[in-house]
Amino acid sequence: MKQNRRTFLKTMGAAGLFTIVPRKVLGGKGYIAPSDQLTKGIIGVGGIGRSTYHFNSDDRCRLISVCDVDKGHLQKALDLGKTKLNLELTPYHDFRDLIKDPDLDIVHIATPPHWHALMAVEAAKAGKDIWCEKPFTRTIGEGKRVIEAVQRYNRILRLNTWFRFKDTFYGLGTTVQPLKKLVDSGMLGWPLKVTVSGTTGFTWKFYWVGKDNLEQQKVPAELDYDMWLGPAPFKPYNAHRVHQTFRGYWDYDGGGLTDMGQHYLDPVQYLLGKDNDFPVKVEVDAPQQHPDAVGIWHKITYTYEDGCQIVLEGEGYESKTKTPYIEGPKGKVYKGFECTIPDIMNKLAEYPDPEPQRTDFVDCVKTRQKFALNEVNGHHSCTLVNMAAVALRLGRKDLKFDRQTQTFIGDDTANALINQPMRGPWKI
Amino acid sequence: MKTIKLLAIFLLLLFVQNIYSQTDSRNRTKETIVQDCLAQLPAKNLKSLNQVSSEIAVTGKEGMEMLVGMMLPADQAKNATFEYAIDGVVSYVSSQKNSSLRAGVQQGLMSGFVKCSDKVNRAFLVSEMAKIATADDAAFFVDLLSDADLKNAAVSALASIKGTDNVISSLIKNNTAPKAELAYLAYMKKLRGVEDNLLSWTNGADEKTLTSIYNALTVCGGEKSVKTLETAAKLKNFENDPTGATDAYLQLLNNYENNTVVLAAAKSLLKCNRPAVRCAGLTLLLKKDKPNAAKNILVSLKDDCAQYRNTALGLAKEVAGEDIFSTVVAKRAGNSATIDIVRWLGNNKRTDQLDYVVKVMRQHSDSTLTRAAIEAAGKIGGETALTALIGELSGKYAPDAKNALLAYNGKINEGISKALASSDKNIVKHALEIASTRHIYNTYSTVLGLTNSSDADIKKCAYKSLSGVSATGNFEELCKLMESTSDTKIIGYLQSATKNAIKPLSAEEQYNLADKHIAKTTRPSLYYPLLAQVGNKNAVNKLKSEYINGNAREAAYKSLLQVDNIVVADVLYNIGKDDDAKKDEALGRYLTLIRKSRNNYMAKYLLYKKALDLNPASDVVKRNALDYLADCPCLPAMVLASKYLDKEATALKAATTVKTIAAKTKSLQGGIMVKSILNKALDVFKAQANNADAGYAVDEINGQILPKFVNEGYAEVKPVVDAEKIILGDKVYENFELYLEWKSTGDAVLDLRSMPQVMLGKDIISVNASQATAQVNTIGWNALAIKVVNDRLSVESNGVTLIDNFIMKNTPETAALLNEGFLDVLKKNGNFDIRDVYVKELPSTPIYKLTPDEAKAGFEVLFDGRNLDKWQGNLTDYVPLDGNIYVSAKYGGTGNLYTKKKYSDFIYRFDFCFDEPGVNNGIGIRTNIGTDAAYDGMEIQVLDHDDPIYKGLHDYQRHGSVYGIIVPKHIIFDKVGTWYSEEIRAVGDHITVTVNGDVVLDGNIREACQGHNVAPDGGKTNPYTVDHKNHPGLFNKDGYISFCGHGVGVKFRNVRILDLSKSKKKKR
Prior knowledge:
The complex is a heterodimer of chains A (428) and B (1068).
Chain A: H1 5-12, H2 17-20, E1 38-43, E2 61-67, H3 71-85, E3 90-92, H4 95-100, E4 106-109, H5 116-125, E5 129-133, H6 140-152, E6 157-160, H7 176-185, E7 193-196, H8 225-229, H9 255-259, H10 261-271, E8 281-285, E9 299-303, E10 309-313, E11 326-328, E12 331-334, E13 338-339, H11 344-349, H12 361-367, H13 375-394, E14 398-402, E15 407-408, H14 412-416
Parallel strand pairs in A: 1-2, 1-4, 2-3, 4-5, 5-6, 7-10
Antiparallel strand pairs in A: 7-11, 8-9, 8-14, 9-10, 11-12, 12-13, 14-15
Chain B: H1 2-17, H2 30-39, H3 46-69, H4 80-94, H5 102-115, H6 119-132, H7 138-144, H8 151-160, H9 165-173, H10 179-189, H11 195-201, H12 207-220, H13 223-235, H14 245-255, H15 259-269, H16 275-288, H17 293-300, H18 306-320, H19 324-330, H20 335-347, H21 354-363, H22 367-380, H23 383-392, H24 398-406, H25 413-420, H26 425-437, H27 444-450, H28 456-469, H29 475-483, H30 488-502, H31 507-520, H32 528-534, H33 537-549, H34 553-562, H35 569-578, H36 583-596, H37 601-613, H38 619-629, H39 635-642, H40 648-664, H41 672-686, H42 692-705, E1 714-716, E2 719-721, E3 725-728, E4 736-744, E5 747-752, E6 755-760, E7 764-767, E8 773-775, E9 782-789, E10 792-797, E11 800-807, E12 824-829, E13 832-841, H43 852-857, E14 860-863, E15 871-873, E16 878-881, E17 884-887, E18 897-899, E19 906-914, E20 920-927, E21 938-943, E22 979-987, E23 990-995, E24 998-1004, H44 1005-1008, E25 1040-1043, E26 1050-1059, H45 1060-1067
Antiparallel strand pairs in B: 1-13, 2-3, 3-12, 4-9, 4-13, 5-6, 5-12, 6-7, 7-8, 9-10, 10-11, 14-26, 15-18, 16-17, 17-26, 18-25, 19-22, 19-26, 20-21, 20-25, 22-23, 23-24
Helix pairs in contact in B: 2-3, 3-4, 3-5, 4-6, 5-6, 6-8, 7-8, 9-10, 10-12, 11-12, 12-14, 13-14, 15-16, 16-17, 16-18, 17-18, 18-20, 20-22, 21-22, 21-23, 22-23, 22-24, 23-24, 24-26, 25-26, 26-28, 27-28, 28-30, 29-30, 32-33, 32-34, 33-34, 35-36, 36-37, 36-38, 37-38, 38-40, 39-40, 40-41, 40-42, ...
């Protein structure tokens, strides 16, 4: 049997440790036994995967491997491992090989979205815990498959957007916590309407659109284009399809709507207490979308059964006068926590803080507790994004959603976009 | 080029070959319809998308086939429009309510596909066909399974189309290749009855096929598959091998009905050494053996593996019911398991198990366990939890307990009040913090009492906590306390307390209270923070005077920075201007306030510029200002930003601002000056390595902004100043836009085309001969934007429109309007300063001149392109622009446009053009002002009569009719944008209308109604007129000629008239 790190440690005993663990790790205070130290590997190191935020390694979780289908990206990550972290990282071309490593605990998926679900399922099957970048999955059906796999093997999954528990929420000028407190206090009344718009502090990044007349180009030598496409339909190569501009194509993502959408919408779902609910309707107002290239849109409206609404205002609403971020029958709150209820902060202080969330991923992995944003609520907020994408792509003014079956009512073509078949041999 | 030309000819031949005889309601051939539609794509909104899509869809097979045939080889990258069209139509007919049009579209796609040889286009067409295909079309996609290029698209299609189960089953039963793909389809369709076939394929299958079969067996398999997969998984030691046998085995077990088989399998999986597989086995066991679930859970909790224990707990409630909580708690568990259990109770908010949680908490046996219990108790809530948590405030778990209390699920006020009386110093300290954070007002006197505590810690804590528990009624007492101490820390605490105490009051009430205290105190600075909170004009003035004259200037300054009201902006600006040490800080705050203000963008720009002109040292301040400038979509903001493109620290921000403004502002998309600024920004973006947003900016500038550029654009003009006059550009201007900034201590006049038009005064700006005036900035600069086109003038001062589309007057008003002239400013008195002058020259207006024949005949030009001098009435909505009269809806005018003179017999000639489909206008003749020309006089109809919106139109309403009286010939209009020339000849009762040389109407109005323009019986129905209405003014002797507009979308030009009554007289 192949010896892995843990069995190796078991058989070697303490004396052997010094030969494989850098001395500094064993320093006095804060000593963490290597068997308690988790390991992670990153798949996709071209963009966010190589960013300062993620490309790190510490006593609690050590980076050991990186994977990319672009040799240039991979080499840069290896170099960065040396210069920044003083680590010899193991490089992989095929993510399946990275996942196979028995010494690996956590798989960090930082690829374009068309790979997320497939890789998450593979990682779960291999018994790894998962850190997945947003958006969670490219289709509603994929999200369901990830949930099944994660639960089949009892894995811990973190979907990576974080505004429901920390940081100022983009241009809103406040964190989400006081808003949650305000909503829960009932002072605004019910149902609520939340508007995610330029005027409330959010940008939909409409420059992330695709090009609709892409010429065919030669695939660069360093890129394995077939593996980059993976489950996506084959389309002739053009540099604009891949790397930093992939967001502009429906096959891989869906522009600002899907790429920023989950950042913006997940906290709204949390605020409204809809982590286990779906809207019953999505309405779209947009110019025509190209079948391949993502375009702009004007307005998207979600309606929940209880009348709560989420409104996304896009192109054409930039110069609109001030819109409330949250509007209820009894009060409104604007950007910068400007509230129509007088002396709101003092009033709010009398209410309890929102229930604490588990936001330490390493701790969650060790204690097997669900992370604050996981496969379940992550799937729900990603479904917001994905159902709008379906309506946009098909030019549907509105689509009605059956929350039980997670399918659209009376529209077979829209439903075909829920479980999009993958290009063989990939499957999920 | 040649090949494209040939191709075009080829396509043309194709069309000629199939001359599509059918036409739509507008008499368009299918070819025309498709072309018209293509011209409108991509559609700007869903409404027009549906419109265009339905029009194409209605053309059915032929139209769609034609459309597919138009696609060029994909490598030319020119197919976008066709792709929009095809996808739009397919999506449209895929909707249930348009399903009746599907068949035709499908047939067209199919025959187009057959003729298409381009691989990429073919794959596109297959994916589009899949969207609307039904089971009946399955054979088509099955055939494509053997086509290497289309295999994937075909598999996708078969997987997506409903009702293909039987087709796929029979393919599998017939042992057809490709097996891996068919197995995948079996999986997607969850086919039953193919298990044996799939199993038979496993022998000797390659890895890819095997993987696909195993995957299919998870949903298609039964007992035989369980065996096969079990063997395969065991062979791989339940490792995660590439064929996915283990996972397939687990999934199948989960889907499988036979419990005995599943349970046996699950139990053996528990022995596996892969934790994840053991967890999966346990999940199966618990789910499939509910009677023994509780027992199995208790056993699992003894396991060493945390994953395993938590798998059991995660499923416990679902599989073993509510009783499981007490069952688990009753059983003794190890330390690790107890931690899991306590968390589990908290996650499930088990009120009934609170005693247990509290007991564990109080034991303090293990720090992780204690923390888990504190967290759980907070989530569960309840009286016991509250007491226990407050108890924990005394020891090392105080921070955890405090967090739990702040989010505690219930009311804490009473508990905290009690805690304040505790003898435990630590409990009191933390309770103070909680009382303050949660604003437990009724603890005020207790807290105040504790400020006298002998314990220094508690004393300090109590002071600090006052801010959260003080209410308005406590204000005076707090002030007194503040006055009685000199401890700066305590003063700080009391200042926040006083602020919070009166926060619920109105600003005015707050100010009065603060002012009253300042008046009698020796230390006014105590109340500065209060003034900052008030932030109204009075408060700011007070702080300002304290800053200038007071003896606590720094404190006043600090408070000025805290004011959250635009009224403080000027004060901060002046501090920044006068005090170098404070410049960055004061201007930084100033900029933030300006940005938040409700000023319009032009006013904001002027204020940002003012701050930048002081040249703050901090790059952060500069970058912020540049960031804010991006919200000012105007030329001067872009020019200002461009000045920061050279310095590295500001280049990227400046470039972003330049790009943002250029993208947002259509009027800036032209000319050399803006282009060179944009190119400079482009260079900045290009130099950014590894910055995705910069990459997109390059694409946006090159791909979206620069291609829209027109020739006309702003150019800078250097003013030439002499004693009385400032000359703006040493040339003559006709149509132009002008931007400049000015300030004045006296009066000056701006001449446009050498005519005095705008008075620039010390405090007021006014436009010549109009009522439009506005206040101006008396100290600072003012922004002035002017547009002059033909006889129309628009003036915007500091971002506010003074007049728009105003008909310019010369001075004196009787003098003729000059069509061109100089731009200059005449200084009358005081100082006048000017800067940043930019002029955009607009195209010169073409002037219409009569042909020699018409001139000789005596025609008079009524509209030469430049003005409506010969017209009266609605001069607001009828606008002369680029040589035409446009009908506009922008300016809110009402009524029709009439000639100044009356005419009886005449030849009236003009050109007209429909800019939009469905236009409705008309030429009123022999009519009067303010009446309906159709009945008072005549209306010679102007109408895009074949537009679908005019379905059901009567022939006497068509273009060219004498409305309601005489029916004209039916004109077939060419596409929108085509010009037509028309002549209306009216001689006595004889009316002749000629369009493009074709007489469309020639008749006698009196004969047409047999002399009865009104019903002889005096009733409302007139049997003699073709529209059965009365036309009382039909026989008017003379009257005005008018345009009877019904909205935008039509333009007229070259309007001239020959007055026949005059020439008759002359002849006589």
